[in-house]
Amino acid sequence: MADSACRELIVKAIFICLLKLAFSYSFRSCIEIPDSNHKTFRCIKCHETDITTIVSDVFPTATNLTVSRNNLTHIQGQSFHHLYKLTSLVLDANHIASIHKDAFNNLQNLQMLNLSCNCISSLHPDVFSDLHNLTELLLGNNNLTYIDLFLFSSLTNLQILDLRGNHLKNISSLVECITNLSSLIQLDLSFNNLTTLHHSTRLPNSLAKLYLSDNKLHKLGCDKSFLKYVKVLDLSDNKLLSSKTFQGLNLKSIKYLRLRFTNVSTSKLLNYTNIQPRHIDFSGLKLKHHALTSLCFHLRYHQIPKMVLQSNSIRVLYKNTFCNCSSITDLMDLSWNEMKTTSCLQFLHCQNQLETLKIEHNHLTRLMSCDTFKILYSLKSLSYRYNRILRVSGYAFSNTPNLTNLELNINIIAYLDHKALSGLRDLVTLRLDNNLLTDIYNDTFEDLTNLKTLNMRNNQIAVIFNYAFQYLSNLIILDLGGNKITQMRPHAFDRLKSLANLYLDRNRLKEIDSTLIGKLHATLQVLDLQANHILYFTEHTYSPFINMSRLLDLKLDAQEPNGINLLPRAFFRGLTSLKSLYLTNNHIIGFGAETFDDLKSLEFLTLDNSCVGIAQLKPGIFKNLRKLKTLSIENMGIKSFSKEVFGNLTGLKQLHLNRNAMMSLDISLLDNLTNLTYVDMRSCPLSCGCRNSELQNWTISSKRLQFPYLFNITCQDHPGSFFHNFDTNVCYLDIALYLFSSTFTFTILLSLIPLLYVRLYWKFKYGYYVFRSWFGEQWRRLRDQEEKYIYDAFVSYNSADEDWVMEQLLPNLEGSSFRLCLHHRDFELGRDIVDNIVAAVYGSRKTICVVSQSFLRSEWCSLEIQLASYRLFQEMQDVLLLVFLEPIPERQLSTYHRMRKVMLKKTYLQWPGPNCSDPNSAKELFWNQLKRALRSSNTGSQEEQKMKEQNDQRRQDKEGADQEEREYFVNQTPIDDEVYYLMP
């Protein structure tokens, strides 16, 4: 029993797993971040205005939820009740004006709540009452003017509170709200309307960071110990704030004080407070030459690791400016000033420990030669970004030989002297990007033997000459993107023994030089060739990457002007380690089945916009990509897939199909994609018909495979309808059963009809004719008068045997007073032929069938014998006489089963043939037997003779009336009976 129970549980478990693998899911307004394991969701730019509608179908497993840039104005109560596992909730950049007090109920696990950039003007005191574990609350950029005393009372674990960008005026009431928040570390009140820091209670001891910039503070007005525990204090952009207001304040704990764009005097500040000078940011305090000299005099006995002097309108720095600040060690930042020259940094000649210097966003136009100036051995990092430097002279950095980081980017450098970088043997990172450089000389980087990163992106370089980088044997990253490179000489990359990343994107290269790139095969891992002019005109086998077995990332997107168009066969041969391949915007005519065969390690492939018109991916095109995790084939004009296209993509997790021409998707195509978690089909013209009924059910039924934005997909063939809810009731018939039933019936009929045709053809035909006669009341009339015979016998024969009938049968029988009915003589003119036959058979006591080969081939003769045999068998009337004019083999009669039945039941007559030994005696015997048969009675009634006389009289009357017509037809030339019967 236990074993059977276990087996049953195992079967159920397997069944449930299979069910989970078979279905997919989507959300009305949200998407799940791929590979987040149902924990991270984003609901951005939705059309819904109701928050409960937006998040109603988000899984209860969610821990991170972002609902941004929507048209929300109100958050209802219990809106997130089912999302009890949430730890992060972002509701920024909506239009929220009001929040119900129970909106965040049941979110006990929430740690971060972002309500910034909305229209909130007030909050209910109990709105955060359930958020006991909240550590970060962002309410910035709203319309708050007042904070209720009990608003934050439940947030005992709150560490960060952001109230910047509101309309708060009274800090005292706010301090009362937060005084019991013993875990609060950071409070941001920037960009409000505070005029003073006057307070009625103290700040929490835990508060370490207080931001009060961009208010209207003209005095602090606070207790001397109010800022006792604050470590970071930002009072910048309070233009009315003066030094005097700091008098007596306890700022001993301050580690960073920012006073930019205030009226505070640094010297007075140092006199009024106990703050340490090294913790002051001196930016924006109008410290020009004399003020700087005075400041350094105050700091002459202090250690100053960092001196930030941004935005002080400094134009010139003299040799002795910082001599009293000789203890600056880590950083000096002179950015956002008005300096036009650095004078080879002679203002630092007293600085023996400074490591980093920033002179960004100034007005420098030239870096002069510095080979005769004092050497600054301590300087490691130097940045001249965002200046107007046009020229760098030779030996410009000779006085800073120990630089490891040099940033000259975002200038207008057009000339870089051959020896400009001379002496920088320790340089590791060099940035020359976003300048106007046109040439690289083979000795430009001569001394940069330890350089690892060289960025020359977005210059005007056209040619890479031989041995341009010959000294950079340790270079790892070389960025030459965004230039005008049209050619690279054969030895351009020689001696780059360590190069791993090479960026050549957005240049004008027309081909990939396999010899040139091949020299980097031992180390190259990333190759970027986007937006060049690479083009091929033949499909002949060619691979420029044949030896690039270490390459991990290859970008070939958007070749100018119209894409690569044609890929040679085996183009990617040799890239056995490649993990990422980018081929977007190339308008490739077609991909061969072997195109990606060598990419067995590929994990990411994008082919977006890489087609010309309608594309059809060939079966097996991805057959070797078993490690592929992300496949993007957006906007490729794809109408359909065969199952073999995705056959081996067992590792695929994300599939992007949006903006294709698919009207349907057979879900069986995805059966082998057991790891698939994300399928994007946005902007595909999906049909809302039965062929997509399974897809519709599949896309909304499960929790494994996500179809993002499914509920926004409209029906192209039914405007105004949506794919997720079109009516599929008519599609749920058991199509298989109906198809089986119909095909089975059709097969049976197809087998029986030939058999029935052979066996029952004449029975059906006879039945049809009988019905017609019955319908015309002829049948009923004949049945009522069946004993009132007009003729002794109706003679059924073929026109081929008419001579025998006229010369032999007619004289012998009518000469013996028998009345015979012959079709060419006695049928009623203008009457339907079938009615004439039925009337002749039932108006005669007997039917004589003159059987010959011609008789057997005649359909009308067959009808006549069928009618007569019907009377013989069904009505038990002895009415049929068979006369054989010639021998008929048994096998020829096998198809005439009714005639054979008559032959078995009755004796038939055989006309003596020419081989008869005594023909005269045989013929005499024949006629005697035939006459005897004609005289035999059908019923044995004694009234037969009387009936005969009455019929004779009736016949004579009829013959007199139609004598003229009969003579006409008797004298006609005999014709085939089948043709004759068609005459009126």
Automatic annotation (TrEMBL):
Q: Answer whether the UniProt record assigns the keyword Transmembrane to this protein.
A: yes
Which chain positions lie within coiled-coil regions? none
GO CC entries: plasma membrane
Renumbered to this chain, the signal peptide range is: 1-24
Pfam families per the record? LRR_5 (PF13306), LRR_8 (PF13855), TIR (PF01582)
Protein family (similarity comment): Belongs to the Toll-like receptor family.
Q: Which organism is it from?
A: Sinocyclocheilus anshuiensis
- Name used for this protein in its record: Toll-like receptor 13
